[in-house]
Amino acid sequence: MKFEPRYTEENFNVPEQHELRDFFRLSLYLLGIVFGLYIVLGFAAEKIAERLPPRFEAAIAAHFTGKLDDSAFPASRDYLQQVLDRLVKTADLPDFQYKITVQEQEEINALALPAGRIVVFSGLLDKLRSENELAMVLAHELGHYAHRDHLRGLGRGLVLLSITAALGFSGDLPGFIAPSVQTFSLKYSREQEAAADIFALDLVVRSYGHAGGALDLFAMFEEQERNTPALFSTHPDSRWRRQNLADRISREGWPQKTVQPLPAKLPFAEEVSPQA
Fold first, then answer.
1. What is the pLDDT of residue 204?
2. Beta strand ranges found along the chain (DSSP E)
3. pTM above 0.70, yes or no
4. 179-238, pLDDT tens digit by residue?
5. Which of 72, 132, 257, 263 places its Cα 20 to 30 Å from the Cα of 125?
6. Judging by beta carbons within 10 Å of its beta carbon (0-12, 13-18, 19+), is residue 179 exposed, middle or buried?
7. How many C-beta atoms surround the C-beta of residue 246 within 10 A?
8. What would you measure as the largest C-alpha separation in the chain, in angstroms?
9. How open is the CA angle 221-225-231, to the nearest 5 degrees?
10. Contact 120, 103 (CB under 8 A)
11. CA-CA-CA-CA dihedral for 29, 31, 35, 36, to nearest 10
């Protein structure tokens, strides 16, 4: 006996199936939920961060700074601390003891950790050519403290972690959602970086009396980011950053005088091992 398959006739009890369409529809719903929660709860986290008392921030900082090596590059660290102290004197900042830590790492970067701890990587120091460039780097990190960016970022990170846990993704968003959320977060980060640039320029001008050297820093950054599309960068395009600051210098009529040289190449030679 030959088997002849019979297909269900179209009727009201058996709906037509469109699995792919249903998948995309549900994916969009899920993406909308994640974005909605991220925006609403992220906004709430920002407001909480703005009002977080210093003693609570100091308690949070212990989890980030407890394992930092404060003994590395002592001479370079002392010099950076002198420049930082000069900037702090003329800045409107939260009431913390702002302290420099130098870490041996090739990455060209610096970090603002909670409660006033600034970490500068030796790879960045190696690229600096004047004290004015160094001051711009440190003033930029102070800008993050003034705007509470370091706590805003921490709050948003905790919000995203909570959302993924609540949705049962074990801390990781699905592949079709993660890129969208990451791109949104990067844009938010770039806005913070641009605001910190403006804060830094204003502070350097108040501290040094001119804007000389403030723009030189970005030529080095441009060289480093040539292979990184702006869409996937946590920082704005360096050419845009330099032009944005140049426009502000022009509007304010700030002079650009001779830069103050570094006392020696950073990190100081006696602190660098022969293998470095």
1. 97
2. 99-103, 110-113, 117-121
3. yes
4. 444 444 445 577 888 999 999 999 999 999 999 999 998 888 887 776 555 434 456 788
5. 257
6. exposed
7. 16
8. 99
9. 120
10. yes
11. 10
253: left (phi over 0), alpha (psi -120 to 50) or beta: left
Cβ neighbours for 204, distance < 8 A, ≥ 6 positions apart: 87, 132, 135, 136, 139, 211, 214
Amino acid at 131: E
d(CA 76, CA 6): 82
Cis check for the bond before 267: say yes or no (omega within 30 of 0).
yes
Report the percent of the chain where pLDDT is more than 90.
Answer: 40
Which residue do the tokens 């030679």 mark? 269
For 102-140, the pLDDT digits (tens) are 999 998 889 888 889 999 999 999 999 999 999 999 999
Best mean pLDDT range from 39-48, 78-87, 165-174? 78-87
Contacts 24+ apart (CB under 8 A), 34-37: 34/163, 34/167, 34/173, 34/177, 34/181, 35/180, 35/181, 35/184, 37/159, 37/163
- Residue 185: which H helix or E strand, with range? helix 178-208
